[in-house]
Amino acid sequence: MNRPICYLITIFLCLCVANLSAEIVNIALQKQGATEWTQLAHDAQRTGWTPEVVSTPWRFKWLRSDVDARSQYSMYPITGNGKVYITAANNNVYALNLSNGQNAWAVAPGGTLNSTPAYDPDTQSLFVCSSNGNLYKLNTSNGSTIGTFNAGSALDTAPLIVGDRVYVTANNGTLFAINKNTMQKIWQYDVVPGTWTINRVTAPSYSATRDIIIYCTDQDLHVRAVRSNGTLAWDVKPTVNDWRSWTGGGWTGQQQIEFRHGWPMVADNAGIVLVRLCLGYDSLEVGGGAPMPKTNAEIKQLLINNPQHQAVFALDLDDGSKAFIPAIKNGAYGDGYLGIGPMLCIRTLPNGKQVVYTVYCNGQVCESMGWCDYREDSTIGEMVLDNTTVPGYEAGDCRFFDWMQQGIQTDEQGPISGAGDMVFFAHWDWPSEGIQITDRSDSVGWPLSNPIKGTWTPWVVTENSSGCGCSPGGSSHYCSNNTCAENAGRWGPPGFFVGDSGWHLYPYTIVSSSHVIVKSISATIFVMEHGNPY
Q1: If phi over 0 gives left and psi between -120 and 50 gives alpha, with beta otherwise, what is residue 42?
Q2: 281 secondary structure, DSSP code
Q3: C-alpha dihedral over 428, 430, 432, 434, to 10 degrees?
Q4: Does 105 map to a domain?
Q5: Separation of alpha carbons 389 and 332, rounded Å
Q6: Is residue 450 part of a domain?
Q7: Does residue 197 lie within any of the structural domains?
Q8: Separation of alpha carbons 444 and 527, rounded Å
Q9: Nearest residue to 41 via CA among 417, 323, 333, 393
Q10: Are residues 62 and 25 in the same domain?
Q11: Residues 380 and 437 reside in one and the same domain
């Protein structure tokens, strides 16, 4: 065959393979029903992102203030079959009609419920994990139990649905693959005993391109990838730290180093899994009490020099090796006790490339405010996962959003989620802050004075201050001028008033079936849809 023709055929085949690889996650999402937020962090990869967008303006639809979530646990709403499902601190599973928020049913299947359930569109069933070791399969028409599997150890993390299987991680470190139709065990992977006793795990996540299930374990601080046939693909300990729990000096309270309460986040197209470690309050002072440096390269070098303070790890999906250093300093909710920081949100762009939306720290934030220390150097932006997505940026580099006028404290970093070109952040004053990106071209994102451009979505505030001029009792719940909190000490754009209070971690925003659903800081589920807010 003519050599030029062979060369052209080779190029064509390479492009076809590349395009197929770039689309594989999108196809998987479509098969799972991408417009439904059916399990923890939306999908089996736990990206925390959906392609669905509810265009603004939004109007209030309904709220429920009696579904109290257990503090510190990942108990978030999901949707399916016209309902919103959430587990509550009273150990009930609530199925709320998406149309009006009224109970379709509420049941207590058994044991203590500490995690987000998962809805399966194929069987129209809800899978719920319990501390009594049972995985319950519920009929979503009436809440009745139609199947049970017992793991022999507490199940405190969210189930994972992939194809005809449900994967669950037991507190003793065992990973189970269960047939979702029969509720019979297909296989189990048992952690080989080591120096540390396994007593806590993260929820499992799935890589479609490698066909592996990934989860983290405490107290050994390992990340494991298990093939879909039940054999180990790889096993790594990404941190130099060992597990420990201690009481900090002064006001810093109880501290821990652990993976618990988080989950792996899979960027299949980029070949990366991201995991986050909970660190102590002292990790906020990695720069010696000063703000973070002002460049990505300096931030990465600081973390390389101080590996005990690295909280976010980017691991290669093929072997678990470290792919790059994310330029992300530790940060989380907590004045004293510091929980695990926000899970990252992975967006798939139209060209198949993937980027991450994250809270991170950079000294330019302090410079723009005139002065701040290690507790005020946070902002929100985009992290790239390779060296080609944005020219001039390397994997792990972060770009700025136009968010700085609000300011974020490093010990008030809440969860991140996304919907299309919208990014949502959860502060305890505002359980849903949001921006819709209008320009993320290569020419913006750096420095802070030239950020990625966007317009604010309506924000949702918990306890509005009187200075905002918004009527808390108004039927629309809408604040047309602005939202504000802490006696008008912090201001936000126009949005909605919830009327919530308390301190139950963590608030969260999901978008599903043409609705924006916000879990507030305590007992409120607040739902909006497209329309005139009045």
Answers
A1: left
A2: G
A3: -120
A4: no
A5: 28
A6: yes
A7: yes
A8: 33
A9: 417
A10: no
A11: yes
In sign, the C-alpha dihedral spanning 192, 195, 200, 201 is negative
| pLDDT of 284 strictly over 80 | yes
Tokens representing 47 are 């990206």
Q: What integer is the mean pLDDT of 152-179? A: 98
C-alpha closest to that of 34 among 86, 84, 80:
80
Omega before residue 447 within 30° of 0, cis: yes
Are residues 5 and 67 part of one domain?
no
Q: Give domain status of residue 138, yes or no.
A: no
**Closest listed residue to residue 513, CA positions, set 156, 129, 36:** 36
Residue located via tokens 């405490």:
218
Rg (CA), the chain: 22
Does the structure show a pLDDT above 70 at 1? no
Q: Each residue of 42-78: b (16+ CB within 10 Å) or e?
A: bbbbbbbbbbbbbebebbbbbbbeebbbbebbbbbbb
Rounded-to-integer distance, Cα 464 and Cα 457, Å: 18
- Integer Cα distance of 245 and 156 in angstroms: 20
Range of the domain at 20: 1-32
User: Which pTM was predicted?
Assistant: 0.92
